[in-house]
UniProtKB/TrEMBL annotation, chains A, B:
Binding-site residues, substrate: 346
Family: Belongs to the class-V pyridoxal-phosphate-dependent aminotransferase family.
GO molecular function, one term: L-serine-pyruvate transaminase activity
This protein's UniProt keywords: Aminotransferase, Pyridoxal phosphate, Transferase
Swiss-Prot/TrEMBL GO biological process terms: glycine biosynthetic process, by transamination of glyoxylate
EC identifiers of the protein: 2.6.1.112
N6-(pyridoxal phosphate)lysine: residues bearing it: 197
Cofactor: pyridoxal 5'-phosphate
Name under which the protein is recorded: (S)-ureidoglycine--glyoxylate transaminase
Organism: BD1-7 clade bacterium
InterPro entries associated with the record: Aminotrans_V_dom, PyrdxlP-dep_Trfase, PyrdxlP-dep_Trfase_major, PyrdxlP-dep_Trfase_small, SP_NH2Trfase/AEP_transaminase
Alphabetized Pfam families for the sequence: Aminotran_5
Amino acid sequence: MTRSFYPPQRTLMGPGPSDVSPRVLEALARPTIGHLDPLFIELMDSIKTLLQYVFKTQNALTLPISAPGSAGMETCFVNLVEPGDTVVICQNGVFGGRMRENVVRAGGIAIMVEDEWGRAVSPEKLEEALRNNPETSIVAFVHAETSTGAQSDAKTLCAIAKQFDCLTIVDTVTSLGGSMLEIDNWQIDAAYSGTQKCLSCVPGISPITLSTAAIDKIKNRKTQVQSWFLDLELIMGYWIGGGKRAYHHTAPVNAMYALHESLVLVKEEGLENAWNRHYQNHLTLKAGLDAIGLDLIVPENERLAQLNAVKIPDGVNDLAVRQQLLADYSLEIGAGLGSLAGKVWRIGLMGHASRKENILLCLAALESTLKHQGATIGSGGVEAAMAHLRAR
Amino acid sequence: MTRSFYPPQRTLMGPGPSDVSPRVLEALARPTIGHLDPLFIELMDSIKTLLQYVFKTQNALTLPISAPGSAGMETCFVNLVEPGDTVVICQNGVFGGRMRENVVRAGGIAIMVEDEWGRAVSPEKLEEALRNNPETSIVAFVHAETSTGAQSDAKTLCAIAKQFDCLTIVDTVTSLGGSMLEIDNWQIDAAYSGTQKCLSCVPGISPITLSTAAIDKIKNRKTQVQSWFLDLELIMGYWIGGGKRAYHHTAPVNAMYALHESLVLVKEEGLENAWNRHYQNHLTLKAGLDAIGLDLIVPENERLAQLNAVKIPDGVNDLAVRQQLLADYSLEIGAGLGSLAGKVWRIGLMGHASRKENILLCLAALESTLKHQGATIGSGGVEAAMAHLRAR
């Protein structure tokens, strides 16, 4: 293909990227300026302030890493984990496993605390693990497991970690902007997220925030951070501190326009209003899914609003359904990952995708497609959702 | 700033980001699709093919890293350098020093071969270093030093490295698309570049290419690659090989639209034509600088066409000139880096910025601004450039 590429207009209701706000796409294409331009430095400061707002933190070290969420994860681990450090990782899905990879590659010792996929992390198991492993200095877990749709009680988990004098690293990729998250109040020392989930932004950037305790740990490292690109002391030289900024790497300038616009959108809506919108739209989707007879795999009080893992009915061909949704409706929903592959669909209601129109399209498309594929399911998903909407 | 950010229209003639093609900006804002969408997989294949074209390589492992050039550099080093490996690095500017950082953090032993900043790397010194250090397994150098405007003879340097059975890692950030570069013919085993220089694209992505010999070295590693995000065996699972692509990270989808469009532009122009355009425009700029009396610091046969390091006349205030160019002409030129800070300006003629209009603007703006700042310089830069253009 040596001609220009014109993508179709999709409706993105998978695990991310999710629908991007038209305002964000428009901002993305504004004229590029230099990464050391005084006006770009002002934009950087504004991005930091807005990220503090959405993270609910006063942390000075709050900034976007110039790469996707996986790089944000790696930033937290390679800076905070030194060779020989013991890290307790609570795993209840795919991304806890990736945390383990990061700890091991940083020379740390990973102690895994396993929970069933589709369930929240168990505070009791964490407490037991910390009691049995007093040398532990860091606790890590995923707040909103994108692979299962389960939400863990980050506040309680961090409080336990603090009883054992541990730093906390929390994956907030799918929670930031989509459900309650309070970095400072919950005692989270390091968190990373992504732009392509509940922020309505394009994929490619990873907001992070680190507490003063986390910075102290970095400043007192006995070994050099193994990554030059992700070394926070170097990145801080560019992102933090007065008028003089030291060149580290060339920032993805246009992606920063997009991130800034997406944060302005959250600020305009109000963070708590955004959380509530995600929750209400989840209930509306749930009403429709109930009517069709599709079940969520996560127990009610552990469910994420923004990522709904739906059990695939017996005998239904996972891939055929997803392909038909894409072909007939230009609608993308997500497949299962890891041990849930072929067993669930993941329906995202994230950011700009968390809208009434999307819910109704998804319910109508799913119901019709499942029937076309010969599945025995119920009817009236759209009507049930509409009834729920009218009653809101 | 909680309002939308509207950047000014700059003319970007620094060391990058350089002017972005309007077609690339337009492509950037096209609707986001999923990173596993069948159409996105097709786009990925097309990007790989076009990158093979601009790199002049048959390497199967030719793909864009989802992060800036510094991450492309780190990808090459953390995958190819194992703890204890000896790497000879030829340094003639800032970026050779960054290579050293990468080698050391990967546990390798860096042997530095120093050349004067502003000069090409010396083949004789490299040969001597390899004779004195027979345990060396990798040679690394910068093809086009963005910090000084010097171009090294990559073909000769790689041939020497091959005599000593070494792999070669070459920084082609500023050369790709802007001056002659032949990965296969020159025996380059690993190269990385950036999108924001001679490709007329936005910053944020790093094209890389690795030879089969480089892949063999990776496959025979005794230790795990220290970075999960930059582990090429994992990245290959997503970017290379048939219909089945394994999820690794969420690709920056819109940035890939932009990269693709920028590569289509090079293909339309013809790679050799693009090299020649950069060279001819360099000569035109040079004719104008000669008239004003501004000197380039790099000897003629070692000069980069796309990055011109101009000696700042004695007594002239570096920062004041650059600030006035920005304020009065919305024109950005680059400051000196490292030991050249305050001593040179770096005038980029890269990609979409390598145009007649930019040369004339830059000459007129520089001449007028320098006179306003009280410098004693010549006149007629624009006329000399126009005369050169008419004679072309």
